[in-house]
Each structure stands twice: as C-alpha cells, then as structure tokens.
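Table 4 source record.
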Amino acid sequence: MTTPQQFQSSDRRIDLDWVRILAFGLLIFYHVGMLYVSWGFHIKSVHRLTWLEPVMLFLNPWRLSLLFLVSGVATRFMLGKSSLASLAGARSARLLIPLVFGMLVIVPPQAYLQIVESLGYPAGFFDFYTRHYFAFGAQFCPKPCIVLPTWNHLWFVVYLWIYTMALIGVLALWPAGTDRLGRKLADMLAGPLCLGSLA
C-alpha cells in the first residue's frame, strides 16, 4: 500500500457511484420497512406487513457490508492521491462535520418521536431539545434509556471515521506489513469463487 502510483488516475468510478446509490437506496427501504416488521425499532407502526420480513432478512446480512466495501475502496483511491496527514484531514472534514450537523439537526426529532411513542412524553419538541437532548447522559430510563445526545443511525459515520484513523495509524507505523497484507488479501479475493468464500 506504499506504492499508490497505479491509482493516480483522476477518472471517476461510475460503477462505485452506482453501488453506493444502490446501497443507500436499500438502506432507506430497510429503515422504512423496520416500522412494519415484528422485531423492535425506535418507533413502530400499528400495521404489520408479514410479507416484508423475508425481504428484510435477505437484506440484513450484507446491506452495511456493501457500504463499508464502497467506503474502503474510496479510501484506497484517496490514499493514492494524498499523504496520510491530508487523508486524515479530508476524511475528518467529510465525516465529522456532517456527523455533528446530523446530531444537532437530523437525529433529535427521531429521539423525540421515540420518547413520545414509548413514554407518551407530553411536552413539545423544543422542551425535549432544550431540557433533555444535551444532558450528556442517560435519559428516560429504564425504558427506553437513551444516552443523549445521540448519533442514532449515524453510527456508520462514526465507525467509518474510526476505521479510517486506525488504518492511517497502521500505515504510518507499519507500511511494510500493510503491503504484505494487501497482497495476501488480493490473492484471497481473486477469482470467481470470491463471493462464495466470503459467504
């Protein structure tokens, strides 16, 4: 992984863009579907769609793996175009700024609706946001016991940032080892039996 010259092409990978679009489309479908299946979720509909459950179970094992795969490939291409320090800065800007925005703007209504449905929270959203959301601790325990503020479904962004920083640390401390590991992984993942070996 210390010889990035082969990845210097500026051509955009349209195939990866479409895989990313497909993965996020499936995630939207999956999370909407969670309202209508029998297992737990933050909020639930009174209606149940039993036909939907096999579809959800089919999507569950690989929907997030697909996103991590695309993110890993994108990180690899970024490594070919920038130093480790600039990659850390770029990844932090692209991930942490949207994370903070999401935690301040997008996630609070989700947490509020969960409290309203679970506990019949009588006050409005503004009361919840100002009195509880920035408590920096567990609220409304024992059920549902939410640690606020929360990133809820933005956990993927947090994990992706942590994995990227860990990769940068390993590359900085042990570049030769990552080269060997990369070659072994390339051999393991080559050939038509690749998908079967990952199942």
